[in-house]
Amino acid sequence: MAIELVPLPLPASADPSKFGDFGREVRGVDPGNPTPEQLKEIEEALYKYDTLLFRDADVTPEQQYRLTKHFDPASENYGHGNNKTGETKKSILHPDLKTIPSVPQVQLIGNGTVYDHWGLAEAKLKHPSHTTFHKTKVSDEDADKGVTRYYRWHIDAALYDLNPPKVTTLYGVTVPEGPTQVCRYDDGTGDELPVPLGTTAFVSGRTMFDILPKEYKSLAVRSKVKYAPHPYVWMAPANAMSTGLGIESEGLELALEELPAWEEEKIKVLPILWKNPVTGALHFQVHPCGVQELIVDPLPAGASRDGALYPDGVHVKDLKEVREILYKMQRPAIAPALVYPHDWRPNDLVIFHNRGVLHTVVGAFKPDTVRAFHQCNLAASVPVVGPSDEDVKQWA
Ligand SMILES: [Fe+2]
């Protein structure tokens, strides 16, 4: 049976004209036991629409792993590596992840204490909150009224040694109900977004590129970013901006010699734009928190220098400047009208194109509120693909 694709219900805040090709609910499939034909259709739909939702899904961790692996059969390990002990304990990601013992590629994430869960006798979970990561935080008084923030806009990726996963699957096992919150940007714009409690918010990397003015499109198509070695350890002492879209430049990052042992060859230098394998569209895919340097190629021969930024290319190593350039390009795409905050129901399964969207945890739970999700992504077997020569010619 052919699968049925239905547009996702958009909140009133969203600009529907920007979501025509974003997000579909998939009906008529059991995602735990899809047929090979259905898998093919799901795969194509994922790259076309970037985020797929299955309602009332019933998937074991093993089935979720198999579904995730379908998108990259040669991949094997969790996106950050299966072994998260030892040196990486210092990473800011460490407290957020609990591995399902029988399927180590699947992580249990959420809030509160979960008992007797797929081989875990007891797991204490903590929903990440902006209060421990941002430089400033919402006042206790406002927090009590339900004001919150984006935690950290990101791509699921180690960004050191391993390739960014192609997709991530998120399965809502226990989804607490609660009042809507207000996600405030606190960046002087007055922007805010009403969000369901504990939403996962998504923005399209394709839209992030599409809405850029011409000179920034040219910059993006010619640019690569160099990530820090062990970026999550490097950034651990630093504080994020109030929008969750990068780090405040206060010089708090660890010095390179303070990091666990690292090798130059394992550092990731990735294009800013990643090419969609099905549509050919370019997606602006930068995890702003982990970036250290910006490398811009000169304009190609024949391109107009009129108004061009860095027409002769540049290698920006000043961290503050790097971040300012990236922020200017990424901030427009997290405007409230461009954000899809998913309203989780129990047994929702979401697959998202991790090489095509940015996402973030939002909101805050009381310590005893139980939320349990299964998350799976796999370090890809192949590197990301940047713009082609034709793309550079078209956009530079
Ligand atoms: Fe994530």
UniProtKB/TrEMBL annotation:
Belongs to the TfdA dioxygenase family. Transmembrane segments: none annotated. The lineage of its organism: Eukaryota, Fungi, Dikarya, Basidiomycota, Agaricomycotina. Residues 22-376 form the TauD/TfdA-like domain. One of its GO terms (molecular function) is dioxygenase activity. This is TauD/TfdA-like domain-containing protein. It comes from Candolleomyces aberdarensis. The keyword Calcium does not apply. Residues 16-36 are annotated as: Disordered. Keywords: Dioxygenase, Iron, Metal-binding, Oxidoreductase. InterPro entries: TauD-like_sf (IPR042098), TauD/TfdA-like (IPR003819), TfdA_dioxygenase (IPR051178). SUPFAM superfamilies: Clavaminate synthase-like. Its cofactor is Fe(2+).
